[in-house]
Specification:
There is one protein chain. This protein is α/β, with parallel strands linked by helices. It has 2 domains: 264 residues, Crotonobetainyl-coa:carnitine coa-transferase, domain 1 (Rossmann fold, 3-Layer(aba) Sandwich), CATH 3.40.50.10540; 94 residues, no CATH class. 36% of the residues lie in helices and 13% in strands. It is built from 17 helices and 11 strands. The strands form 3 sheets. Strands 3-2-1-4-5-6 form a 6-stranded parallel sheet, with helices on both faces. Helix 2 links the parallel strand 2 and strand 3. Helix 1 packs across helix 7. It is elongated and about 85 Å long. The model has no long low-confidence stretch (mean pLDDT 90).
Length: 414
């Protein structure tokens, strides 16, 4: 394997689905990541969807996606023997990433202070629902809880209905995992300066609270206003602005914005007029009027009625091509198939094929988050099978005899 930016470093990944992305990012950057699972496999392997819709701990697509660039071992760190083996691994590691409840690792004698004594300078990343401190530290977390308590959920949905979560997958965990990777890299930089290892405390609630939403927490610091759910893109507007529109073969994203630099409408209206889709109201409407946000709803409906007819007469590809020609800020809403066939992503080599020998084929994965000029940034291997690298790590690296490993396996330690 070609060496990556983090090739000199080793990561021990103890996380469940709340933190799997953190170590994946470090692994894609070249670190040697060892995924430590309980004997029998991590519970995250039971999360669907599954390859060919066959529920199987070795076929979870979530597991496939979040565990590339990792080797895998099984180990029960709640046992005395398991703890001793883990401590031996810690001596070879630079990072330990975990997502247990606050205080759990300390109870096992494997908290950050204990790990520092084993390997001075080791960096620990703890990813939990609400962090290691505060009145909520011992509360359980789920994705829907994170979005609700962070304030992020308040802006999603229709104004006359309850708020909704943004996805049926755990987006909040991905945000926390990415924050954990950033924290780990900053701590590594600091360690290279002063030799000290940090304990990074990542709260999933914090991670979601810091998302830059138009009507949520960061926006409050800009305008001290909270936009109601489902409202116009403009604060204080008298009309509701539509943002997603149907077209011949799907949907496009567009918002009438008057003078707004985020969505000037005049280029689109001129394009509509050339194709005969404007009405009398649109032909006389002054798009430079400074009180655009105060246009009454009944008048704004006339703008949107003509716009809707125009979009329904074109495909997504036609609208994108026309938008480029006419300087209109309009974008197709891509499906999974659209993304796979997107010529820009293909040209950049974004999609990569990873071999799955156990399935007898390769699977297409989203690639790296960027392209580095001097070192490769890529996925080095598919997600590990349960205990796939036990022999490689226990026998070859730690020199544990086969006979001992057999006893440990029978005892449920590995």
């Amino acid at each position: 394997m070609a060496e990556g930016m983090l090739s000199p470093y080793r990561v021990l990944d103890l996380t469940d689905e709340k933190g799997l992305l953190c170590a994946k990012i470090l692994g894609d950057l070249g670190a040697d990541v060892i995924k430590v699972e309980r004997p029998g496999g991590d519970a995250a392997r039971s999360i669907g969807p599954f390859y060919h819709d066959e529920p199987d701990p070795e076929k979870s697509l979530l597991w496939f996606a979040l565990n590339t660039s990792k080797r895998g071992i099984t180990l029960d760190i709640t046992t005395a023997d398991g703890q001793e083996i883990f401590k031996r691994l810690v001596k070879t590691a630079d990072f330990v990433i975990e997502s247990f409840a606050p205080g759990y690792m300390d109870k096992l004698g494997l908290g950050h202070s204990a790990l520092q004594k084993i390997k001075p300078g080791i960096i620990t990343v703890s990813i939990t629902g609400f962090g290691q401190t505060g009145p909520y530290r011992d509360y359980k977390i789920a994705d829907i809880v994170a979005f609700a308590l962070s304030g992020e959920m308040s802006g999603w949905g229709e104004p006359d209905r309850p708020p909704v979560r943004i996805s049926n997958h755990s987006q909040s965990y991905l945000n926390a995992g990415a924050d954990g990777a950033i924290g780990a890299l900053m701590a590594l930089y600091q360690r290279n300066i002063n030799g000290e290892g940090e304990h990074i405390d990542i709260s999933i609630q914090d991670a979601v609270s810091l998302l830059d939403g138009e009507n949520r927490n960061p926006a409050w610091t800009r305008a001290t206003q909270i936009r109601p759910r489902g409202s116009s893109g403009m604060m204080g507007a008298a009309h509701k602005t539509r943002r997603i529109w149907p077209c011949k073969d799907g949907y496009i994203s567009w918002s009438h914005g008057g003078l707004s630099p985020l969505g000037p409408s005049l280029p689109l209206v001129k394009w509509m007029d050339r194709e005969g889709f404007t009405n009398d109201y649109l032909k006389t409407f002054d798009w430079n009027r400074p009180d655009f946000v105060r246009v009454p709803q009944e008048e704004f409906d006339q703008i949107e009625e003509a716009t809707a007819r125009f979009f329904m007469s074109h495909t997504k590809a036609e609208l994108l091509e026309g938008a480029v020609k006419n300087d209109a800020m309009l974008y197709p809403v891509s499906t999974t198939k659209d993304m796979m066939e997107n010529r820009q992503l293909i040209a950049r080599g974004f999609w990569v094929e990873i071999e799955h020998p156990e399935l007898g084929l390769s699977i297409t994965y989203p690639g790296a988050f960027g392209s580095f000029s001097e070192v490769p940034l890529n996925m080095t291997r598919r997600a590990p099978l349960i205990g796939e690298h036990n022999h490689e790590i226990y026998e070859k690296e730690l020199a544990i005899p086969k006979e001992t490993l057999l006893i440990l396996k029978q005892a449920g330690v590995i």
